[in-house]
Design brief:
6 helices; 3-stranded mixed β-sheet; single chain; about 170 residues; alpha/beta
Length: about 170
């Protein structure tokens, strides 16, 4: 049986997870016996091995993480490009963000706070120009529409009718 890390919580079901660093995590209800947890893991041995191998292959083919110099260069590029893009699109859209910040966020390229301050990840600079414009316009749309409802996408489509195609460039 594969070794695993166990996390008990007030959940009702068992769950398996393979982490990005190839650890096997089992999430289990507080009162469930160790024998039942071990039996569950034993029944899923094939799944675990398949997904561990897939994750190992992903790790082997992934580019090396960016260095501090890479990140500094991306931040400098973002500081040079994004304020002008935000200003241009803000004029076209008739909105005014309250601030602009460049971060090193990995999970999202942009965000808009409740107070209409925009944040952009420096890693957005690795994307094509069309995708950068999409993220800028997307966040500016949140100044008017705070959620991702139909009115938000109607507004986004008004300024970028091809936003669905542009979104594919972000992946």
């Amino acid at each position: 049986m594969e070794s695993y890390e166990l996390i008990r919580s007030r959940r009702k079901t068992l769950a398996l997870e393979i982490t990005k660093d190839c650890r096997v995590m089992v999430r289990a209800p507080l009162g469930l016996s160790q024998a039942k947890i071990d039996a569950f893991v034993g029944r899923h041995t094939d799944w675990i091995h398949t997904h561990l191998e897939q994750q190992r292959q992903r790790m082997a083919s992934a580019p090396p993480p960016p260095t501090e110099a890479d990140i500094a260069a991306l931040k400098a590029k973002a500081r040079a490009i994004l304020p002008e893009k935000v200003a241009d699109w803000s004029r076209k859209m008739g909105v005014a963000p309250t601030g602009l910040k460049i971060t090193t966020a990995r999970k999202r390229y942009g965000s808009c706070s409740r107070k209409n301050s925009l944040c952009f990840s420096c890693f957005l600079m690795d994307c094509p120009e069309e995708a950068i414009d999409l993220v800028v316009v997307h966040e500016l749309c949140h100044i008017r529409e705070k959620n991702h409802g139909p009115r938000f996408y109607a507004l986004l489509g008004q300024y970028l009718p091809d936003y669905k195609e542009r979104k594919k460039l972000l992946r």
